[in-house]
Amino acid sequence: MVDSASNAEEALLLFNPEVHDLVLTDNSMPGMSGVEMAHVIKLRSATTPVVMYTGKVPDDRSCLDLVIERPTHLLALKEAIEKLVAEKRPDKGARQAKPGNSPYDDFARNHPQIRPAASP
Fold it and tell me: In this structure, what CATH number is given to the domain that contains residue 17?
């Protein structure tokens, strides 16, 4: 299921970890920032991946699983999201990765706009 929201507050009202496999956000939003929203998402569901697709990369990326800096090709975004979702669902044939060696790390190395989040 894909839901969209016009701001972080609306997104948090819609978010349900039983329904949503991943959260995609920007950092610059009206009201609460994308990083602030990501912190709330992680408090509610630590295992839900949060991807930030932004032109303004935040200093604090501790609550983000992946940062993709704009501009970048939308296929790079699509592939990165597919890899994160596959990692979350090991029953779908994806291998379980160790921290720092996730399936999207090799992909990210070949796309400089994609920054795996630093380990907390």
Answer: 3.40.50.2300
